[in-house]
Amino acid sequence: MNVHRRQFGAAALAMAAAWAAGAQESYPSRAITLVVAYAPTGDTDAMARLYAAKLSARLKQPVVVLNRPGAAGTIGSRHVSQAAPDGHTLLFAPNTVATAPLVMKPEALTYDVLNDFAPIVQTSICPLILVANPATGFKTLADAVDAARGGRQLSFGTPGPGSPMHIAGEWLNRAAGIGIQHVPYRANVAAQIIGGHVPLGYVTLGTVAQYLQAGKVTALAVTDPARSSFLPQVPTIAESGYPEVAVGAWHGFFAPRGTPDHVVALLNRHLNEILRMPDVIETLKHFAAEPVGGPPSRLKELVAADHRRLGRIIGELGIRAD
Q1: pLDDT, tens only, 225-260
Q2: Most buried pick, 34, 40, 162, 285, via CB within 10 A?
Q3: pLDDT greater than 70 at residue 7
Q4: Burial (CB count within 10 angstroms: exposed 0-12, middle 13-18, buried 19+), residue 180
Q5: Domains and CATH numbers, the chain
Q6: Omega before 28 within 30 of 0, i.e. cis
Q7: Cα–Cα distance, 223 to 33 (Å, whole number)
């Protein structure tokens, strides 16, 4: 009897192993939809299409980018959170995924960023910077702060209310005791600064790199916790006298909660290898993005840390999206 039970148990384990192996081999069984919660312009969309092409070649299935913009990125994120957890619907998102739910009205919240996603990998970091129109005469952050304290009417542009850029600007206002006015733009903040429509702006470095080189904008400070390797001469806001002000920018891949571990592991492995490809590293430089990679746990911890730390600031400053 014991022999029979052992044989039966061994057979059951073998069948389970075979099923698991078969399940792993069958993924992906059809096209993968990669959701971007923003319009088909800008760094996030361009990076998504880069990764989609590389993943498609490796997984032998189409990886199709689907843009689902609106509501500070929450529409696209919600779409993925409600998708079947089989690895065929993924989300590629900037760090707004961690904070967008915090700036929305309570009735607009339809998912839990901490519990409704399976993090896959952090792909990169992209420095956020405060820049000025050269006509302002500002060369440093201290110049802008001194002018604001002296009564000069100033404003700063961002991609929208509730964005990391908006958070950084209002946070600096409080830390420095100034009141620089926020002006949200839906597209191309750099053009607004260069055109003189707004004297200051918080932007990702990739969107203004060419204008910095041409002298059309001046970099005053990096909002990230550390200096950027792309702008090593530009100090951080923290270094400039406001150590508590630090808002970075990053991108990552997510799947719906409940996606099988072997699917997450497979995608993580492929994406880590993609991030080490020389042509990918070179392309990311055009966005002033540094590849990161690592295990899913790194991204999970990052989302939780940003949600907690920036959530406190959002609450204290009363920052809200439209």
Answers
A1: 999 999 999 999 999 999 999 999 999 999 999 999
A2: 162
A3: no
A4: buried
A5: 31-126+249-317 (3.40.190.150), 128-222 (3.40.190.10)
A6: yes
A7: 33
The phi and psi torsions of 67 (rounded to 5 degrees) equal: -90, 125
Which pair of tokens denotes residue 235? 């100090």
- Which residues, in sequence order, are bridge partners of residue 118? 255
- Rounded distance between C-alpha atoms, residue 239 and residue 187, angstroms: 30
In sequence order, what are the beta bridge partners of 65?
Answer: 34
d(CA 70, CA 76): 8
Instruction: Please check the confidence at residue 10 and state whether its pLDDT lies above 60.
Output: no
Q: Long-range CB contacts (< 8 A, 24+ apart) of 289-292? A: 289/43, 289/47, 289/124, 289/125, 289/126, 289/206, 289/251, 290/124, 290/125, 290/126, 290/229, 291/123, 291/124, 292/122, 292/123, 292/124, 292/125, 292/250
- In tens, the pLDDT along 171-192 reads 999 999 999 999 998 778 999 9
Across 143-168, average pLDDT: 95
Return the structure tokens found at 223: 């909002």
Taking Cα atoms as reference points, which of 194, 116, 198 lies closest to residue 165? 198
Main-chain dihedrals φ then ψ at residue 43, nearest 5 degrees? -65, -45
Report residue 322's pLDDT band, with 50, 70 and 90 as the boundaries. low
The closest of 217, 71, 58 to 203, measured between CA atoms, is 217
**Burial bucket for residue 229 (CB in 10 Å: 0-12, 13-18, 19+):** exposed
